[in-house]
Specification:
The protein has 56 residues and is mainly α. The protein has helices at residues 2-11, 17-39, 41-45.
Length: 56
């Protein structure tokens, strides 16, 4: 309950928008990364494209 009140107080002022984005962005990115590790492990072990993507 105290954490909810603290978050409400931090998010309420308009001036806090940048701080919220700075904190929430990496949290969402971390959650996405953990989801990829859990559900699609192969996607984290490969790079996009092939080694010969520039050859014809």
């Amino acid at each position: 309950m105290a954490v909810t009140i603290a978050l409400f107080v931090l998010v309420t002022p308009r001036e806090a928008l940048v701080s919220v984005v700075i904190v929430v962005g990496p949290l969402l990115g971390g959650l996405f990364f953990l989801a990829m590790l859990r559900f699609d492990r192969q996607a984290t072990e490969t790079e996009p494209g092939g080694a010969d993507s520039f050859t014809t």
